[in-house]
Amino acid sequence: MSGIRFPRRGGWQYASRDGVVVSCWGLPAPFRRAFLTIAANTRAYYRTLFGAETVPAVELNVRMEPGLPLRLWTNGADRIYLTLSNKSQLAPAPKSGVRHVHGITHELAHIVLYRALINLSELAEGWGEGWAVYLASFWAVPRLFQRHGAGLWPYPYDYRRFDGPGRLIEQFGATSEPPSEPVPRAVYDLYRLEQGLGSKEFAARFRSMLRRRMRADDFNERIAAALRRLPREGA
User: Which of 127, 166, 159, 126 lies closest to 144, judged by CA?
Assistant: First the structure.
């Protein structure tokens, strides 16, 4: 991807690859390429896992300009937006505290789930965010590291540890009690499901649910039923 060009239109620069358009304002070239690589590879990976219909063509809009807040969000359908104010926010996560590799994979995971659910307001508390945290951390980030290594980000670092599963596994191992807060509990329950079912069956179960539109309360019940069938913790 080092040779990819971003033609300029006004103050914006654009490039596309594999169903992803990245539009950037004020961003150095190496970071433009990194964001495109992250988004395009992750979109393709999620489509392989859950079906081509689960992730449409996506636009990632990144704007860096003094005075802008540091903010990342999605419309839940086909757009992701990131605003930054300065280059220090592009430093590696251990230095900046900003986990961009996780962030883009996280927002794409939101799109996978939100497009599949009809009455999103009925989704169990914590599961929208918990799903995105889990899928990004345990699936997408390790896959990116396997394919691209530490050099995916222009300032190389081990994003498996800071953006991926390392921090969550350490967190789960620090206590024998399940988390009580909704988002950590959803991440914990997804971890239990994958450990209990195995990664292949875990992906197949979610693929069967996410490939077609379904009610969020039906999704909740299927997850609850799968958790009930797991061996009791400590048994």
Answer: 159
